[in-house]
Structures are given as C-alpha cells and as structure tokens.
Amino acid sequence: MHRIAIIADIHANLFALEAVIDDLERRDVDEVMVAGDLVGRGPQGNAVIHRIQELGWSSVRGNHEDYLLSFYHGDIPDSWRHDEQWAASRWMADELDAAAVTYIESLPFSRRSKLDSTVEVFHGSPNSHSEGIGHWTPQSRLREFLDTIDGSVLVCAHTHRPLTFKIDAGLVVNVGSVGLPFNGDWRAQYAILQGHRDQWEASFHRIPYPRQQFLDLYQSSGFLSQGAITAKLLHYEVRHARPFLVPFLKWVELTDRTPRSEHLADFIEVYDPAESMATFLEKTRRTSQRSSPS
Ligand SMILES: [Fe+2]
C-alpha cells in the first residue's frame, strides 16, 4: 500500500505551500509530486521553485511555466512588452532567477510515480497542459485519456477545482489548487492517493494558511501596483477563491472595451463571482445586444 500526495497550481503562493508542507509532515506519505503551475498568477514564483527544489519533490510542467518562460526569453509579441494587460507577466518573469529558469526548463510534460508506474501525473490532460478536466469532460474522453496513459490512475490539475471520476477500473483525479482555488474555498487544497496497482482511492485536503499576509505581500512587493490590471484581478481571485481574470478579459471583449484598469470598477459592479462564467457571459451578451444601436 502506497500513499502519494499530489499538489498543484501553487501559483507563486509560498504561504499556502508552507501550510501544505506542514500538513504533509503530519501525514504518513511515501512520495509527493507536483502537478505543475508552480509559478504565474502570484508574486513568489522564485521562492516557490526553490522550496520545491530543496524538498526534492518531482514536478511536471504547467502552462504557466511555459508562459513565463516565453516572457523571460522575450519570445512574445511586441505589444506584450508594453500593454498594461501583460505588466504582471513581465513582473513575474523578471522576478525569476537563472536557477529557477533552468529548473522550469527541465520539467517534463508528464511523470509517473516512482512507487507505482500505473499512476501518471499531468498538469492539464494527456493531450495538452492547457486542457482542463472537469465536470464538463465526457466519459468517452476520460476513457480515451486512460487508454492513452496505459495506467490506471490519471492525475491532473489546471482547473483549480478538485474532483474525482471512477471509470471502469481507472481513476481520474483532479487535485485542485494549493495557491489559488476557484471552488469558493480559499484554503490550500491538495489530494492524497492511497492504494497499489489498480486499487486506488483519493482523499482531498483543505488547509488554512495566513492569507492576509499573502495579500499584504501583493502590496509590499510592488506586484499589485506594477502588475497593474492583472495583479488587481489576481488579488480579487485570492480573496474570493473564484476566477476574476478570465471573466474580465471575456467581458472587455464582449463589451468592446480594452483590458485596462479604468474598466475594473464597472466590471466589479456587474460581476457576481458566485455565478458560473457561462451565466455571466450570457448576461453580458444579452445586455450588450440591448444597448447596441439597431
Ligand atoms: Fe493554474
């Protein structure tokens, strides 16, 4: 019988990571794996990478690792070098040191557990690190994924919402997010797999951390002011444990605005983080159709 903890989507939040490390010290786990997105969407990317390296926990690459590497190497469209929308990404890429960049560049797309090769960890899906597996994923697609990995347990993250599916003899586990959950509960979330061969089950854990200290660091590090509109939206995400950045970007597109701070107050007035993004966008579409001249 093995116990494997999988943590993911730390998103440059060292306070949440430290709370999970403390919690894991009290639990009897044989291996800890990291399912990507150590960095991005937060001000402590460098510190998080060095802490994971120090612990020797194996990790895979998330979409935010690739994303920050593009900024670090300047492999980005010209407008991203000065547009307000990308100020936070520029700040986060600047914050990384050379050792952190080397580490990120070494991360593989997927990884099998050292203890049991039937457990394979991805950030998104076996198809892409930007494809989220969630309640919307059809069973046929989940079966395809399990066939692809040739194992019985597929572990993933990316959506920041924990869940698990049992498909025939297989198990798909989305472990949720340590640093930036989107399920309305701000606590650091992760999963522990327990079992062996094709007999596995998952338990989910939620750990409080000093969130206000993390929010204060948004201010004191300069991330909130220099990261402009995106950092302000991320600050809302940490407070509400709900998505703000993507809904804002879709809202500005639908209402013919630009993704700039001057539109934040209008967005906050109409956006209800408790409702689904689909409902919010549908409402926005209806309102903008009514207000546009016929
Ligand atoms: Fe993420």
Count of spatially separate domains: 2
Please identify the oligomeric state.
single chain
**Main sheet strand line-up:** 3-2-1-9-10
How many β-strand runs?
A: 10
Structural class: alpha/beta
The coarse overall form would be globular
Distance between the termini: 67 Å
Biggest beta-sheet profile? 5 strands, mixed
Q: What does the radius of gyration come to?
A: 19 Å
Output the CATH homologous superfamily of the largest domain: Metallo-dependent phosphatases
Uncertain runs are: none
Determine the mean pLDDT: 96
Ions and ligands: fe (ii) ion
**What portion of residues is helical?**
40-55%
The helix tally amounts to 12
Based on the model shown, name its key terms:
294 residues; alpha/beta; Purple Acid Phosphatase, chain A, domain 2; 5-stranded mixed β-sheet; 12 helices; binds fe (ii) ion
